[in-house]
Predict the structure.
Amino acid sequence: MSTIALQLKESTRSAHNSAEGHEFQKELGSGTLSKSLYTQYLSQLFLTHQALENAMASQAYMGPVVSPEQLQTEFLRKDLKALGVDADSVKPIEITSRMLKKIDELANQNPIALLGFHYVLLGSKHGGKFIASTIKKAFGFEDGGCLYFDPYGPEFQKHWQHFVNGINSFDIQEPEVAPLMNAASEMFAFVENLGGELLSMSTANK
């Protein structure tokens, strides 16, 4: 039987490819995304990470699976500060509000599934260093602004392996597996649709 980490990778392949191929992600990766849209994107991700990390904080998998170093909220707070945004003043747009509600529901009903959300967000760091490099050049960042995409430098694999080893050895019962996989696909869809929503809002305001 394949490991949980491998099942996550295989079950989300389509959702992953769809999110990665979206126009917003293409603009982000090429450095052609406007600074305004970039700031809005980080703002909504801040709210998402904050809610997710608060929801996971008291769970038994904190430590064995999710180490403190894997948490992303403070990286985003620093980036938003560099962009002139007070993170605590950020308000969710509708699509983010729905994700925050979903996080809250899973925290109460099936907290193991929250690891599916975390898997996607932490895993995004695999390609994040390339985005960070591109964004740094595009916007002239020096000491902040794109820390979220490459917070660990060459240490990332150490943190990723902690997560992979942890989730593979954690006691996840069979009825919890499908919700975990579904949550991961949902997070990929959220990232894709968030980008699409921000692009649509930007076009509508022109």
